[in-house]
Amino acid sequence: MATMALSAQAAVDYYESLPSTLPEQPLPTRSVMLAADGTRIAQFYSENRVPVRLEEVPRAMREAVIAIEDARFYEHQGVDVRGTGRALVNNLLGGSTQGGSTLTQQYVKNVLLNAADDDATRAEVTSQTSYLRKLREAKLALELEKSSTKDDILEGYLNIAYFGDGAYGVGTAAQRYFSKDIAEVSVAEAALLAGLVKNPTGYDPTDHPAAARARRDVVLGRMLALGSIDRRQYRRAVDAPVRLDVSEPTNGCTDSRYPFFCQWVKQQLESDPVFGRTQAQRNERLYRGGMTIETSLDPRAQDIAQAAVDGALGRDNRVAAAAVTIEPGTGRVQAMALNRTFGVPRPGRFDKTEVLLPVMPSFQPGSNFKPFTLAAALERGFDPATKIYAPPTYSPPGLSAPEGGFANFGSAATGNLDARQAVARSSNTWFVRLEEQTGVLNVASMAERLGITSLPRTGERAITAADAALTLGVYEVSPMEMAGAYATFAASGVHCTPLPIDAITGPDGGGVQVPDRDCHQVIPASVADTVASIMTETIDGTDPSRTGAEQSIGRPVAGKTGTTQDNAAVWFSGYTPQFATSVWVGDPRGGFAYPLQNFYAYGSFVPRAYGGLVAGPIWEEIMRGVHEGLPVQQFPTPSQTVTMGNVAPDVRGMSLDAAFRSLSEAGYQVRLAPANAERDEVLPADVVAVQVPAGGSYLGLDSTVTLTLSAGSDREVRLPQER
């Protein structure tokens, strides 16, 4: 007797020690990636689930689940003593194992399973023989019913339950098996779905239609017995055949209409620390976090670009074409096309790839690089009307040059030329001489500020002051970088990092932080606008020897052809105030090993390609298409003077004193923001977290830079001049 009392007391003590609240773990919900017009690009999930509100679920669906799983759901307080007792007696007498769990207990079990983060915990949660597990579920169910309504619990259950074949939640199940919204399911269909929960595999109608129908009829019988349906409804539903309209859910980018753009977005979501400190956290957010990812992709622009690259070369051509279109002044990537199908290539075929060629800095830009040299010279006071003699070949004293010197292609590129003629005719030796006056490293810095971030500035391949070939585009870049840099010219010197994500919302509708495109002035507007004015000569100018004469699109446009050494690749890049597009054409296996010779484009044999051939027509087709229906915009008239200024140093991560010293020495005023930045686990206290304008911005002398200190910084600190 004493032993029984002790055991009873131990049971009571154990029960009291059990947790009384469920873990707050959000349901895994699929993330959706959208184009700029709201159409779906892709979805990502570890559990395919689309949560629904209870009011969206038809009465027949709710009553079917209650009838077969917990007929006394609206009567008990979370634990059905009568049902549990019946199951216990049956189990003790050796009958088939019965759970006796209420819907509330099943919901509790599913929540615990969702929160389990290791195999041992999952095994304990799903154990069929653990009475301690049942006791914990019972207490949690009783406590849950004190704090939640029955309808809230039913809604949670319908969204968390597994309905088989990868469908989590009743909303997803309706889409999976019937290709319809849950609100549209019939009584027979509701009964079939309700019957799946007990054994999703055994009753899967796609694999076991007879078992699924028999289970459905059991559910219908319970609904009739409970008065949920009348005999006429029962007869009609029982006689109805099981008609499935199975939807195959897509997961990831492979089946996306825009797989390369999708994959680029996905890579950013998986790699950028703004979405989580670790790879595991970022993947968790993407595949289980229920994000709505709004991107900048314009489906119309993308379709135009895709048609252009496919029409030029087809998919199974050894020669590839990559095109990128960006909106100047925003950094929004409108289109990113490649004449390939996304997938693993087969031996001897060229039609498929998983390599994101448009964003790979693997291709020499050739003469597309020359405008950066022009911009660097203009910034230092160069008069574009100045005539510079461009000899047929030239070896700059003190700088590196190939044997025999740098050479021009064609006689038109030789002679006394001003900037307009040199750009239009793409004179190599003229630009080498201009670079010689401006400084190689100044040209490299200009390109970097404009967005060419792949240039080797450190390490064994670092550009040196003697590398005169820089201006002729011998260092590898990506089409994305080139489009972004030309977009900076188009935006009067405002550079925005080309990024595909506009905004993200979480499952609760709240905003999620996204990478900043960091739009800021990197060169004076007068310099950028002068470059634009000069580059218009390439296409619509008066020079009969201009290289882009065939690419006119009927509105003001600035552009540049590009042909690399030995025809390894050809480019055409150009812009209006509305769009900037860069097109690369080459053999992805390596342009020097596989030059652009003896291939087919537009159905014709091409013995040797140049920038205005193949790349130029692709660019023209894209730019004509994306501008259709848009008003004609003029380029700004260039200012006659260049504003004197400097490039602001990046002082983020520095102490206040060090940042103040760096900015003051550069000629800027410094102001301290009135509040600290939000918490950042990476930055310690008492350092600069944010500066406005950003580092790398081109600012007039005596401009003011505002510094925001990191979270936890001393608010009593003063700037040196205030101490």
Question: How do the strands and helices of this protein lay out in sequence?
Answer:
Layout: H1 2-17, E1 31-34, E2 40-44, E3 48-49, H2 59-69, H3 81-92, H4 103-115, H5 119-126, H6 131-147, H7 150-160, E4 167-168, H8 170-178, H9 187-196, H10 209-225, H11 231-239, H12 259-271, H13 279-288, E5 292-295, H14 299-313, E6 320-327, E7 332-338, E8 341-342, E9 352-353, H15 370-379, E10 388-390, E11 393-394, E12 406-407, E13 415-417, H16 419-425, H17 428-438, H18 440-450, H19 479-490, E14 494-495, E15 501-505, E16 511-512, E17 520-521, H20 525-535, H21 537-540, E18 558-563, E19 569-575, E20 580-586, E21 599-601, E22 604-606, H22 615-627, E23 645-647, H23 656-665, E24 669-672, E25 688-692, E26 698-700, E27 704-709
Helix pairs in contact: 2-9, 2-10, 4-6, 4-7, 9-10, 10-11, 14-22, 15-17, 15-18, 15-20
Uncertain residue ranges: 1-6, 87-99
| Top-tier CATH class of the domain at 46-239 | Mainly Alpha
Q: Under the CATH scheme, which architecture of the domain at 46-239 would be assigned?
A: Orthogonal Bundle
Number of helices: 23
Residue fraction in strands: 5-15%
Question: What is the CA-based Rg, rounded?
Answer: 34 Å
Kindly report the average pLDDT value: 90
Shape: elongated
The strand line-up of the biggest sheet is 2-1-5-15-16
Q: Got a strand count?
A: 27
The profile of the biggest β sheet is: 5 strands, mixed
Gap from first CA to last CA: 82 Å
Considering the protein shown, what is the CATH homologous superfamily of the domain at 46-239? Biosynthetic peptidoglycan transglycosylase-like
CATH level-3 fold name of the domain at 46-239: Penicillin binding protein transpeptidase fold
Helix content: 25-40%
